[in-house]
Design goal:
Largest sheet: 7 strands, mixed
Shape: globular
Strand order of the largest sheet: 2-3-1-4-7-6-5
Radius of gyration: 23 Å
Distance between the termini: 51 Å
Structural class: alpha/beta
Number of strands: 14
Number of helices: 11
Strand content: 15-25%
Oligomer: single chain
Order of helices and strands: EHEEHEHEHEEHEHHEHEEHHEHEE
Length: 393
Amino acid sequence: MIELAALSAIGAEKILGNELKQLGYALSGAPLPGRVFFRADEGGAYRANLCLRTADRVYLVAASFRADSFGALFDGAYAANWQDYFRKDVRLVVDKVRVRGSKLASEHSVQKTVHKAICDKLCAAWRMRALPESGDTSEVRVHIDRGEARLLLDLSGEPLHRRGYRTEGGEAPVRETLAAALLQLMCWRRKLPLHDPFCGSGTIACEAMLYAYNAPPGLGRHFALERLAFFDAKRAAGIRAEAVAGIRPDCAARISGSDRDPASVERSRTNAERAAAAVGRTLQSAGSDARIPRPVFTQADIAALSAPYESGALIGNPPYGERLGDKSAAERLYRSMTGVFGAFSGWKIGFIAACPRFESLVGTNADRTKKLKSGKLDTVFYQWDARENGDSR
């Protein structure tokens, strides 16, 4: 068994932990902000990258030790069996350092110390004077939290939110992994109609589509662990085949989106088609001609929307004003949303926003709120339970 770390949006750690448990993996210790630790076999490293919906990256915890001095940091880094992970032409990069509550305050010095220790260990193990560094790049991240050091080997490569279907994001799109987390926070299930009234680039609808038909989010891409020495291609192919066999194209799901901007509607259609086509190609390679249904996107202003079904889930990412540069326009939009709570009274409603006055602007207080980090923005996911027709909020 190996120890792994999965990264998520800050605030989404519990959701990610539940995902890991559903995959059959035991959590290892308490989660830290944006990080969940778990144990798995080496096949689990590939399965986590392929199947996790809310994880931004997956790392191997290559070393964990006490580091109260640079000497202890060097010794701890040197002690790890790095030769088991890398090929002999590896180009090693210590890409990020995070230090909190430690005597080792200089991130640059931490970076240099760890890089030297790993290179020295590899040279000693392989009897080389210097590493050729002519091959693929492998990245190591260093976290030191109150003197406890963890050295993390990147197994994902490109961040996992880059599924491959969204080539155009539009203005201020929600990250794919965060969209998946919003669906889980709403406890959305495929039998419940779902509508995104600010579809933008179609991310929420696309993530709902992949979830509804049980399509692994990592199907259309490769991972950094495929370039590491311990990667077992045959085992990975078996894990992938098992995941593909679990896709359920025969399920019924009613997923839709709308936006007042026609370019956003077209962009959402294009991205959803790309995501669904990737699943279709995967099914075809497994001998099936099945296709998964695409979400339906229409042009409409949220103030003009009416509920197409008695119950459902309305989930949206209205413009924040932060990235678009016009907070006053965002606030005017929020005020125009007051009618949606009556129009969708039998629906669960959720909006993610970065405006502290959001509830007062939309005219009603949420039943639940959840703080989430969206990129560098501090956001809140506001949730309202479904009401019976006529109930006041």
